[in-house]
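INFO  loader      accepted 1 record
INFO  loader      residues=249
INFO  predictor   begin
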Amino acid sequence: MNKVWIAIFTVILILAGSAYMAFYYHQSGSVILEFHARVGDKSLEFGQPLYPNPGGKGRFSIRAFQVYLSDIHLVGSKQDYQVSDSYHLARFDNETRRYRIELSDVPYDEYSDVMISIGVDEEANSSLMPRGDLDPNGRMAWSWEVGYKFLLFEGGLEQENSRLPLVYHVGFSENLKKQRFNLPKTITPGSAPIHFDVDVLALFDSHQSIDMATLPSVKFDRNDASLLAENYANLLSLSVKESHNPVEN
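INFO  predictor   done
INFO  writer      dumping tokens
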């Protein structure tokens, strides 16, 4: 009789342990994406003419830089996880020059890729409904039509004794750019943050080098906006240096 009870007790322990492990390892949790702004190989600094004009003479300064990141997907071994109302206005006018997105209640899985769009999809871009960080009355909304500026850059170009204002407001639905990043190793909810570099210089020097003196402003011209959009398709990259940093509290 004792042997029977011992066997039953053992089975119960095994089942309870299996249930606990299944519960423990299949809980939802948070995934953190952290974006660190830079200008080429230099740190992002505001208000100082530190950066060479990629396509011509002079140095430029940055007064404001903001960009919409949207449509975030995590590609898992079993399924993809799409973040609902995923519209995030990334700003870097803080001490760390970083912007953080915390995805909560992410289903447990081993995720190998992250997909992020720069800009706003056509449906949301033609709507007045607030979603995520989309604000039809905010600075990133156009005043002359329904829609959003996907990226905003304002600053100045210093050439000898002159200063030229720089204003780049890029929108239009066709300029949505999707990027997919294969992670160095799979992550699960609760893993260390995934770090990205945001290279502001790519806006002017990636697909094509731009002389800021020749093109100091882009707002309403679709061809000029498309030119900058082809460049900002290379705005984001995985940060190799920080990909395995410990979780920050």
